[in-house]
Structure to design on (271 residues):
């Protein structure tokens, strides 16, 4: 297959099948279009290569060129070691590319000044497989903390923290500690924390990796709901069922190369 296969259209499944089932607070939508392919760029890779020092012979990503526009929902799929986490970690400048160009949320990440990196990160919510919640803080405090560290006033915190916990369906569990919650609930808290500051971009690395299929579906519906508010979402995942169900853009990686980039895609053609 060509290195940079053209994004191909695949017949969409009926809209009714895509509807969420959760009873979450309603949010404004940005329209019926699911995958805007024009408009402002949120992510732009040009011939991007990442080589880790520990593995100089085998680039983790090689010559990646692609664009992600505002409002898109993108799955990043591929076998273990194909480069998904590397892709995600490049976006918030946790790691730096070896060569090429990478622009995220208006910042040139190859030339960004150190002092601007915290500002870049305010524009990017992050969700991980292992939730990364503060174990000694309540649900409410975990979410509030994300606002406090970026200097939001207590008025803003008291308004936005409960609001986002309502959005994820956890208003009744605000005072619980993380270890009193199920895995799915903990992931909802981590999503609430990631979006409480309303970042334009949400990046998720295996967000359903520790969850059963039913719970995973709820998490994906929640991400879909957040996407409908205009937030651009990139999800690295192994979750074949989810990707096949959701029919969003799929970028497939193999040994650090983009081998497929497909609108309304599936996890894999042959399996
Ligand atoms: N910190 C690191 N130092 C050296 N090599 C690394 C490092 N992180 C990842 N790699 C290598 O880079 C390649 C891509 O790894 P990456 O973690 O991006 O894959 P992945 O698709 O996320 O895999 P998984 O599905 O297992 O999470 C692999 O060959 C891996 O061994
Ligand atoms: Mg990974």
């Amino acid at each position: 297959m060509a290195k940079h296969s053209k994004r191909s259209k695949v017949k969409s499944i009926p809209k009714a099948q895509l509807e969420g089932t959760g009873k979450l607070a309603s949010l404004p939508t940005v329209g019926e279009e699911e995958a805007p392919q024009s408009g402002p760029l949120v992510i732009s890779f040009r011939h991007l290569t990442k080589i880790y020092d520990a593995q100089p012979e085998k680039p983790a990503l090689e010559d990646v060129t692609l664009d992600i526009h505002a409002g898109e929902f993108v799955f990043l799929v591929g076998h273990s070691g194909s480069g998904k986490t590397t892709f995600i970690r490049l976006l918030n400048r946790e790691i730096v590319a070896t060569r090429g160009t990478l622009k995220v949320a208006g910042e040139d990440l190859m030339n960004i000044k150190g002092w601007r990196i915290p500002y870049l990160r305010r524009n990017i919510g992050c969700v991980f497989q292992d939730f990364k919640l503060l174990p000694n803080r309540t649900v409410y405090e975990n979410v509030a903390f994300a606002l406090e560290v970026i200097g939001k006033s207590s008025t803003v915190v008291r308004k936005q923290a409960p609001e986002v916990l309502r959005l994820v369906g956890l208003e009744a569990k605000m005072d619980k500690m993380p270890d009193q919650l199920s895995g799915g609930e903990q992931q909802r808290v981590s999503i609430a924390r990631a979006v409480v500051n309303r970042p334009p971009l949400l990046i998720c690395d295996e967000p359903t990796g520790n969850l059963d299929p039913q719970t995973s579906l709820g998490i994906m519906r929640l991400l879909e709901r957040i996407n409908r508010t205009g937030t651009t979402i990139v999800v690295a995942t192994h979750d074949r069922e989810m990707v096949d169900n959701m029919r969003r853009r799929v970028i497939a990686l193999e040994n650090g190369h983009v081998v497929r980039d497909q609108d309304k895609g599936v996890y894999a053609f042959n399996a």
Notes: The chain has two domains: 1-6+39-122+200-208+233-265, 124-198.
